[in-house]
Write a structure and sequence with these properties.
With 281 residues, the protein is an alpha/beta fold. The chain is 49% helix and 13% strand. The chain contains 12 helices and 8 strands. It has an 8-stranded mixed sheet with strand order 3-2-1-4-5-6-7-8, with helices on both faces. Helix 4 links the parallel strand 4 and strand 5. It is elongated, with a radius of gyration of 21 Å. The N terminus is likely disordered.
Length: 281
């Protein structure tokens, strides 16, 4: 488990919300769009990206100000979300070199990029939050871990938690844990979808219709997660509850072990962590 910290912000009423000022999103792609969708009703927002057509769509969807000029956005906003691809980060830092960040809170969702990446490259940038959300935000069931720079004030942490907790379970962790969280939680929705597709393909191969296979699998995942979340059983205990000796479940699990499923899953996580660290260099 991550070394989590309770910020005391989980049950915040509307009257307790701090003044955020204008919130900007540099690189308004899928993840930024998911975050914006959770915040649009409450806050003044601005977005930038290269595609004018995409910006027009965001204007229509969220009634926000947009620009293709990243420096203009950073200069105009009090809280700046940086959501570009990690490979584009160095170029973005050059674009923002003339912006004074002394009175701004930066929230980065870039895989692999440490807090120091921003504090060393942006002018007077000391207040940085490094976050790793996931696309569960699209249905307000996201999971987000975040770490904060030493210069962040309690108010900065409070604001970050409020924003990142919109549409998600948000938890503060140590920065050294975020690459692992990237692999497990950030990449997790794709990994889970990969596993579900394999189950569905196997069901169809054995004659089950696609629609009924999907519905049963989705409900199975929902029920399993809810039971594990609310019960005292750990994973092995739950497996033992389902997999009786000599039964079909036990036969399937034994086959998975023989075929190296555990090792394959571990390799997926290892590869994702490795790539996150490469992106941080």
């Amino acid at each position: 488990m991550p070394n989590t910290t309770d910020t005391g912000c989980d049950d915040v009423g509307a009257e307790d919300l701090p003044a955020m000022g204008r919130i900007g999103f540099i690189g308004a792609g899928n993840m930024a769009g998911a975050i914006m969708g959770c915040l649009a009703k409450e806050y003044e927002m601005m977005a930038s990206r290269r595609s004018v057509n995409a910006l027009r769509a965001l204007e229509d969807q969220y009634d926000i100000t947009t620009t293709t000029d990243n420096a203009e956005l950073a200069s105009s906003c009090d809280i700046v979300f940086i959501c570009v691809k990690p490979q584009s980060a160095e170029g973005l830092m050059s674009e923002l070199s003339g912006v004074d960040f002394s009175n701004k809170l930066v929230i980065s969702i870039l895989a692999g990029k440490r807090i120091s990446f921003f504090t060393e490259r942006l002018t007077n940038c000391t207040r940085v939050v490094r976050a790793m959300p996931n696309l569960g935000l699209l249905v307000e069931k996201g999971a987000t871990a975040y770490a904060v720079s030493d210069a962040c004030t309690p108010e900065d942490e409070y604001k970050a938690h409020i924003l990142l907790n919109a549409g998600a379970y948000a938890v503060k962790v140590e920065e050294d844990e975020i690459d692992t969280i990237t692999a497990v939680s950030g990449c997790g929705p794709a990994f889970i979808s990969y596993f579900l597709k394999s189950l569905e393909d196997a069901a169809i191969r054995h004659g089950l219709g696609k629609e009924i296979a999907q519905k049963l699998l989705f409900q199975t995942v929902l029920g399993t997660c809810e039971y594990l979340r609310t019960s005292d059983l750990d994973y092995d205990g739950f497996i033992s509850k389902v997999a009786s000796k000599g039964g079909a479940t036990r036969a399937g699990i034994d086959a998975g072990k023989r075929e190296g499923v555990d090792e394959a899953i571990s390799a997926m996580v290892d590869a994702a962590i490795g790539r996150a660290r490469e992106l941080g260099k």
